[in-house]
Design brief:
This protein is an alpha+beta fold. The chain folds into 3 domains: about 60 residues, 434 Repressor (Amino-terminal Domain) (Orthogonal Bundle); about 90 residues, no CATH class; about 80 residues, Winged helix-like DNA-binding domain superfamily/Winged helix DNA-binding domain (Arc Repressor Mutant, subunit A), CATH 1.10.10. It contains 14 helices and 6 strands. The relative contact order is 0.08.
Length: about 280
């Protein structure tokens, strides 16, 4: 009950009205509204009038919405935990779809990812994106590739993106077709298996010198680590690949730049500020 006055104060300020204007609509004095907002409680018969004026359910005056949100969060967590492990990502992705639609500010009703997948051909793709000054999303819904990216706005873009980060050097390496092919090949291979430069020589058809150069770059980015073994009285160096999902994410969004996404199921463009400023 003690929160009712605080909630009225918040609703009044959101609506941009004075205590006098609210009092006039409800048919009470401005002093009464002031009393509520300083810890008082309205008479029970006034609650429907107050709720109707703000166009909200009475429950919201009691903070029951907050309680329902907490219950929803708990149910959300329990739902994923109680889902068989093999199905958890599918269930979580449906929740991502709910988040995406909620960010539009509209209720579009039902419509699961599975329904989208069934409605289009298997080699087709659908996208969704929310572009606001407060952040942005990018979503591959179905059917070719599914993913969800949500980026709240970052205050210091210079520190977040450009502080001692040499993008050009990485892009230079990725632009080398042999290096790129080696990285794809290693991501397609069981990372528990050790290898020597000869594996790259054989599978991507490069020279021993080029294979060693690629391994040197992979070491620099901590994508492989090495160890030594003694065979036939000779110490040999071997390597293990340490895969990162960041490379897959890089492919996803590089693909979007090369092949601009279309069609969009939802596309809300309300962003006015530059992405990197």
């Amino acid at each position: 009950m003690n929160n009712i006055g605080l909630n009225i104060s918040i609703l009044r300020k959101e609506k941009g009205i004075t205590q006098e204007e609210l009092a006039k609509h409800i048919g009470i004095s401005a002093q009464a509204v002031s009393k509520w907002e300083n810890g008082g409680v309205p008479d029970i018969e006034l609650l429907p009038k107050i709720a109707d004026y703000f166009e909200i359910p009475i429950d919201r005056l009691f903070d029951r919405d907050a309680m329902q949100y907490k219950e929803y969060n708990t149910a959300f967590i329990k739902k994923i935990i109680n889902t068989p492990e093999k199905e958890r990502f599918k269930v979580a992705f449906e929740y991502c779809w709910d988040i995406e639609r909620a960010l539009t500010g509209h209720d579009f009703g039902d419509g699961s990812i599975k329904e989208y997948a069934n409605a289009i051909e298997k080699n087709q793709q659908r996208y969704s994106s929310m572009l606001y000054d407060q952040g942005f999303t990018r979503m591959g819904i179905a059917n070719k590739l599914q993913y969800f990216l949500l980026v709240p706005e970052t205050e210091n873009k210079e520190l977040a993106f450009f502080d001692n980060i040499d993008y050009c050097e990485l892009f230079k390496q990725l632009s080398d077709k042999d290096f790129f092919k080696a990285l794809v090949f290693l991501n397609q291979r069981d990372s528990d298996k050790s290898f020597t430069p000869k594996l790259l020589e054989k599978n991507i058809d490069i020279s021993e010198e080029k294979a060693k150069a690629i391994i040197s770059v992979l070491k620099k980015y901590k994508l492989i680590f090495s160890d030594f073994i003694e065979l036939d009285d000779e110490v040999q160096e071997y390597f293990r690949f340490s895969p990162t999902p960041s490379f897959v994410a890089l492919l996803i969004f590089a693909r979007e730049i090369i092949c601009p996404p279309t069609p969009f199921t939802y596309y809300f463009q309300y962003r006015n500020k530059p992405y990197l400023l």
